[in-house]
Amino acid sequence: MFYKQEGYPEEDEIVLCKVTKIFPNSVFVELLEYGKPGMVHISEVSPGRIRNLRDFVAIDRQIVCKILRMDREKGHIDLSLRRVNSNQRREKLDEIKSELKAESLISNLAKKINKKPEVLYAEITKVVFKEYSHLYLCFKDIVSGDIDLAELGLKNDLAEEVKAAVIEKFKPKKISVQGEIRLKTYHSDGVEKIRDILKRVGEVSDTISISYLGAGRYKLSITDLDYKPAENTLKKVEAILTEFRDKLSEAIFEREKE
């Protein structure tokens, strides 16, 4: 991992550590993001009585800890393993995973343009870290179009290379909810009634597409970045189809099995 923070962490900060030594009453670790040593007292490893620390940690194992106290003059950092809850642990591991993915992109790009990965990483982060704490946060903004690396100060040619690589690797995959709408009506203005309902369905969201299958049958596709907004869109569509139904009209939506 290339990523390193300068200075010392803050108290209560959640950090990723690697176990380096295990003693009867303490565990020594390296704070991977800061490159500094720290210590977890046995009382901060797990609640309750501990007979053997090796039942909870192992040399070279990575653990997520919380900063308790620091003595910058002596270089002492006291940490806790037991005070990190499951949400904090998951969020930290997700953050590290995203940053490693960003670093992997830099390494692959370095091979492509014949540069050493560490040299390219330093060149890019010198610019990015003026505005962002992590590479992956910058890359997310590149995908959404909220940032231009050239405007941050990166050379134009390199900025374009990074942008192309980021969009290819970080662009979120879309999901699709599909099904068939069947419309039938015996109203004298039935054609207009069907045309109107399809227009209203299409106006619900720009994630919707409708195609004619024949004989009052229509293919409905909802393409979005996540199932939750797609399901909300589908509920609105179904509500509109309910309005179509009366004594002379029928509207049925049958969802495709995933």
Q: What portion of residues belong to β-strands? A: 25-35%
Structural class: alpha+beta
CATH topology of the largest domain: DNA polymerase, domain 1
The order of strands across the largest sheet is 1-2-3-5-4
Low-pLDDT stretches are none
Counted beta strands: 9
| CATH class annotation of the largest domain | Mainly Alpha
Largest sheet: 5 strands, mixed, barrel
H and E string: EEEEEHHHHHEHEEHE
The CATH architecture category of the largest domain equals Orthogonal Bundle
Total helix count? 7
Radius of gyration: 28 Å
The CATH superfamily name of the largest domain is: Translation initiation factor 2, subunit 1, domain 2
Net shape: elongated
Ends apart, CA distance between termini: 38 Å
Helix content: 25-40%
Q: Compute the number of structural domains.
A: 3
Characterize the quaternary organization of these chains. single chain
Average pLDDT value? Answer: 94
